[in-house]
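[Meeting: bench + compute handoff]

Bench side (C.D.) handed over the final construct sequence. Compute side (W.E.) agreed to return the predicted structure before the next meeting so the bench team could plan truncations. Sequence as handed over:
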Amino acid sequence: MVHRRLRILMVSSEVESLARTGGLGDVVEALSLALAELGQEVLVVTPLYGVTRLPGTTVRWPGTVPVRFGWGSQDVRQASVVETSAVRFSSGGSRRVCLLDDPALYRRQGIYEDMWGPFGDNALRFAVMSRGALEIAARVWDGGPDVVHAHDWHAAFAVLYAKLVMGDGWARKRCVFTIHNLAFQGVLDADVLDRLHLPRAAFRPEVLWHDGHVNLMKGATALAEHITTVSPTYAREILAPAGGFGLDGHLRAHAHRLTGILNGIDEKRFDPQSDVALAERYDASSFVRGRLTCKHALADEVGLERGEGPLFGCVARLTSQKGTDLLVPLLPELVARGARFVVVGQGERSLEDQLLWAAEAFPGKVAVRIAFDPRLSRRVYAGTDFFVVPSRFEPCGLTQMYAMRYGSLPVVTDVGGLHDTVDADVGFLASRADVEQLGAACRAALDRFADPEAHAATIRRAMARDFAWRGSAERYLSLYRAPA
């Protein structure tokens, strides 16, 4: 069957090449390009932040775009639009990116927060982003998009506005809402209904009402034609109380519209054969020498002792979800067995302090960099023997896939997307997110390291895993076209 080309609007607070804090930006960047490579017209809309890395070539649209954010006649902001150069493919598909420029709302030194904490007007900022995205799409395409694909609670407003307040034409648009992390739902006080153009009629348990508050993610999942999560296992986990963060009952009621589609990774950008951040580039036939060179260079860079013993790495947001605190009690035993550790990340102050204490307690054996540093992260993937992802829950996780691409074997908890991407052929699994089971998985990794032939064979299998986006993009494309 020959399908006509779809016009797909993606709304996201993050796009990796412009501004990101985590996996959301990576997914939107790579998925939008993969869909365009499959022949679709994709438009991504995101804000122009003070921290946005604009490419050298951009075009500013003439005039402004009026963006309604409230019910009053004066509740309209005039925003500018900056567009980057389109990416076009031989398939006929294209990916355009438009940035909504409203300096009073977005030109700050952070996406969601700065050194003083979260921005108090985030609800307004992302309401304007979402409504602005719909207005931009209406100008890009006569008749607007065929599909509105909104990512996480920040873009939930796009589904709500399309379905509730912008007229029948928009209400008939196919909407897909992706849950990247159910822990963050966009829970707001009820007065947001009047302030941010949400109908009071939708403030009911079936849509926006949740424990007396407005829940944006609940509303978007209630109204979208399709709901997706970023791995099949996570799609099952969020239907149970332990993983549902209070929305499990609501999601069970809509489970017939819920699909788990595993994230991919950009295998061109994350490629040890071409990565200029590495001390030596390598592939599956030359990894023994190449990774050893990278291992020594990484140790020198972060202040670890050189040596042939096992090197463990961890790159993560330092939050309770990511489980990095589970590593600290294991360090005395593992260091005594000859292991060294490097951790790169930033987040909760208490977790940063725990890790910094460990680095002081084990000089030359444990190194910690409190930073968000993508280039150093790739050197960790290339220079470590094992890569630890001890998450208490993990919607998908990308770092374990990046690590395998570079030949670092994952040591993970058996949850969410970690379950879907790591098995005993390529890594080591802790059956529970606790110190005992994580310790058992780390000890199994040490045993594997002690058998060089078996260790090398495991690395070959890990590097051969296919995590390219094409298959996942094809599943999204089928979902866009599927009956509601």
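W.E. noted at the follow-up: The mean pLDDT is 96. C.D. will use this when planning the next construct.
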